[in-house]
Structures are given as structure tokens and as C-alpha cells.
Amino acid sequence: MEAGIVGLPNVGKSTLFNALTESKSAASENYPFCTIEPNEGVITVPDDRLDKITTYITPQKVIPAVVKLVDIAGIVKGASEGEGLGNKFLSHIRAVDAILQVVRCFEDPDVIHVSGQVDPMADIETIEMELMLADIESLQSAQQKAGKTARSGNKEAIERLAVIDKCLAHLESETPLRKLELTEPEEKCIRSFGLMTLKPLLYVANVSEDDVEGTSELATKVREYAAGVGAGFVAVCASIESELAEVPAEDRGEMLDAYGLKEPALNVLAREAYRTLGLQSYFTAGEKEVRAWTVPVGTAAPQAAGVIHTDFEKTFIRVNVFTLDDLVEHGSENEIKNAGKLRVEGKAYIVQDGDICHFLCN
Ligand code: GDP
């Protein structure tokens, strides 16, 4: 699962991406399965629950969850027709699972805006339009292919064609597919097209230093728009965050206070990106390590175990589960068991966000 950062030139993408990957570059030895390209970064997802768990269980290591980010540079007006990096850019977006769009809400006469003035709503419209045009193009070519097969009476192709037509009609009314209601079979049938306006979206408003909460008129417009189109929203001041990222973690407190921040906004951004990707964490807690493991919402216990080791999915027998509240109340897994609160769950169990799991496998 990975999220791609997009945005018009000069909105602060690189500044944010560098701050994110600099301050949080996760210890790569813990994630040997990730190959990291130059425009990719792995960021940790700060989670208070890990700190709480380690007040009861003292491990040798604490390993938080991570999100992979891809910096997708190069969108400009006309990208869908091959302007700028055009098609290459679009193929990068097709490959990610969610989109983080940075929009400029800060005024700074020294930083040129590509269209001459700071207007986040116009920027949003420009990018949305390029993505819709590209989706229309993908769907039209799929329509041709499905059309041929459908004419020979192929049932699957006839069904696919109906969904393609439905999506095209929606896009032609200038609305992103995110707002279109699709049944699960319909969604499945177009999943392989990599449609971009169907991907979960998080707007990252790059706000001025004096508007860290994003309450200015410009940021408010973006927040309200995001809520209306089913997208997430987070306000971040990239220049503050890049300063913060250069300061050792233990020295950040004073700077945060000075800016009126409770924690770096990048922490909020990392958590929101995780949520936008539809991810959640369960924990394992032992003396060796306390660790957050990442699973999509709705994952069953055997598949969740498979994230730790692929064999565990097949050899899964059962899982002992407790919650952080149980741990706070009773102090240890043993005491939770003695109190009759340790749940034993089988293969059909759907893992919940925050579960502390102890898997038993063959
Ligand atoms: P990108 O083209 O979207 O990757 O934008 P950059 O990250 O390269 O930023 C473009 C310019 O805007 C650089 O000169 C940054 O220093 C500046 N910049 C980025 N974020 C902020 C911000 O929050 N406030 C101010 N004043 N300048 C910023």
C-alpha cells in the first residue's frame, strides 16, 4: 500500500516530502520487503498506543507502522494530453493506492505561483480536471475493447460495458468517480483500470506560518470542499515542518510551543495518510518487541497473521486477543486471562483496530 504526493509546481511538495522522509526515515532493516526508489520514502505512523503498551510491557524494541510515500512530480495543466511529464506522471498515479494532494494556501511574494496567484480552489480544479480527462481516456479505450467482446454475446463483457458506460456518463458531468455509487461487483469489474478519480484522496493544505491550524479563508475553503467530495483534509505548514525535521526530536518542544503546535503536523499527516489508505494497526506485544502491524480494515485473523509471516496464514489455529483498555485495567496478559477477559478467536474473526494479538499457529 502506498500513497502518492501530487500537486502543481511550487506548492511545497518537495519541502513536505523531504521533511516527512528526513524526520521519520524508518529503520530500513525492519522493512526488508520494501525497495525504496529515490522518489520514495517510508514514514512512520506515530501512535500513542505503542507508548501506552510499553508502560506495561518493556520490550527490547518498539516498531511502529509505516506508510510508503511516492513523490510524483510534474502535474501541470494539460498533463492528460501529454504536457509536462504528462503520461509518465499519470502512470505513476495509476500505480498508487491513494493520492495526497498538496495545495498552496500560503502567500509569499518570493515564491512564484504557476498561474500568477494563490488560489487553492483553482489548483484543485486544474488537477481534478486532468485526472478526470485521463480517466475518460482509459474508460473510452476499455469501452472499445469490451464493446467488441460484448457484441459476440460475452456476458462478462456486457456487464463490464454497462459499468464503463455508467462511469463515463458520470465523468462527462464533470464529477470525479469518488462520488459515484458503485456496487461491489461493479467496482470489482473496473478495479484493474487504475482509475484515478476513484482513489481515496487527502488534501494537504500548505498553510502560512501564522495559520498553523488552517483557519484562514483559503484553507477553510479547501477543508469545506474536501468534506463535500468525500476527501480527507489536513493543514500543514511545510516551512515550519522542514525546520522541525532538522531539530533532534528531544529539542522540538520549545519550537512547537512557539508555533502553537501540540505535535508536528507531519504526525497528523502520517496518521491521516494511513487512514486514507484504509489501513489500521493491530499490535503484538512481547519482551522482544512491541510492534504495530498494518492491515486493511476488515482483514480476517489468518490474513492478519500472514502479515507477520506468510506461513502463518496457512498454519493459523487461533488468536488470543485483548485490548489496550484490558491491559490498562489488569496490567498483563496473564492477569487479563485470570480475569476471564482474554478472548480466543478463530479463523472468521475480523481483526479490529488496536487489538493486541497473540497468534497460535501450527
Ligand atoms: P514543489 O514544486 O511543489 O515541490 O515545491 P517546493 O517544495 O520546491 O517549494 C517551492 C518553494 O516554496 C520553495 O522555495 C519553498 O521554500 C517554498 N515553500 C514551500 N513551503 C512553504 C511554506 O509553507 N511557506 C513559505 N513561505 N514558503 C514555502
From TrEMBL:
It comes from the Bacteria. ATPase that binds to both the 70S ribosome and the 50S ribosomal subunit in a nucleotide-independent manner. SUPFAM superfamilies: P-loop containing nucleoside triphosphate hydrolases (SSF52540), TGS-like (SSF81271). Keywords: ATP-binding, Magnesium, Metal-binding, Nucleotide-binding. ATP binds at N10, V11, G12, K13, S14, T15. One of its GO terms (cellular component) is cytoplasm. The gene is ychF. InterPro entries: ATPase_YchF/OLA1, Beta-grasp_dom_sf, G_OBG, GTP-bd, P-loop_NTPase, TGS-like, TGS-like_dom_sf, YchF_C. Belongs to the TRAFAC class OBG-HflX-like GTPase superfamily. OBG GTPase family. YchF/OLA1 subfamily. This is Ribosome-binding ATPase YchF. GO terms for molecular function: ATP binding; ATP hydrolysis activity; GTP binding; metal ion binding; ribosomal large subunit binding. Residues 1-256 form the OBG-type G domain.
